[in-house]
Design a protein that fits this description.
Layout (H helix, E strand, L loop, with lengths): L1 E3 L5 E3 L2 E3 L2 E2 L12 E3 L5 E3 L2 E3 L2 E3 L9 E3 L3 E3 L2 E3 L2 E3 L13 E3 L4 E3 L2 E3 L8 E4 L3 E3 L2 E3 L9 E4 L9 E3 L2 E3 L6 E3 L2 E3 L6 E3 L2 E2 L1
Parallel strand pairs: 1-5, 2-6, 3-7, 4-8, 5-9, 6-10, 7-11, 8-12, 9-13, 10-14, 11-15, 13-16, 14-17, 15-18, 16-19, 17-20, 18-21, 19-22, 20-23, 22-24, 23-25
């Protein structure tokens, strides 16, 4: 529905819902409701819900896909990443996928029932003071974190809570600061 392609672009006080992307092309097949490009942009005080991706190149983000920019004080509700089985290059994130200099702060992610984790953070993305709760995620867990190309730009999760996310509240491959510890940690340094 919305593409932000400028650092000064801003969405504020909106309800954004029912957006869908399909396999259009590699760079625009994610972010069913909101796509923030590497040029950036800001989304504040919004309710973003029921977005989906289908047969995408793999990046997901049914509600929001970020290459840069800021997502602040938003509620992400639902969201699905319906990538087809023949596409093995898939970043998790039924509701949200963020890369690079993306910052997600004071947000709530809930109601995602995708087979993928509701949130995928990669290559230095930062999540601060957020809640990921009440998602029906499967074995992928609640939050997938990684620097998939072997870089040292590992995402950070600061002062966040994860609970009631189905099969497992799992976080993999990250440095965590001041988080609620009611989760399973795999290859994680607690500081």
């Amino acid at each position: 529905l919305f593409e932000l392609n400028n650092a000064s672009a801003r969405l504020r006080f909106l309800t954004i819902q029912n957006g869908k992307t399909t396999n259009v092309d590699k760079d625009k097949s994610s972010g069913g409701n909101v796509w923030i490009t590497t040029a950036g942009g800001t989304v504040e005080d919004c309710v973003i819900k029921s977005g989906s991706t289908a047969n995408c190149w793999g990046a997901g983000g049914g509600n929001v896909y970020m290459r840069s920019g800021r997502l602040s004080r938003c509620k992400l509700i639902g969201g699905t990443n319906n990538t087809n089985a023949q596409n093995e290059w898939v970043y998790s994130g039924g509701s949200l996928v963020a890369f690079g200099s993306s910052v997600i702060e004071n947000c709530t992610i809930t109601g995602c029932s995708s087979g993928a984790a509701p949130v995928g953070l990669y290559h230095g993305a930062k999540m601060v003071n957020c809640t990921i709760a009440g998602n029906g995620c499967g074995a992928a867990g609640a939050l997938i974190i990684g620097a998939t190309d072997g870089t040292k730009d590992i995402p950070s999760v600061v002062n966040c809570a994860l609970f009631n996310n189905g099969e497992k509240d799992v976080i993999k491959g990250s440095v965590l600061h001041g988080n609620v510890t009611d989760v399973e940690f795999a290859k994680t340094a607690l500081v």
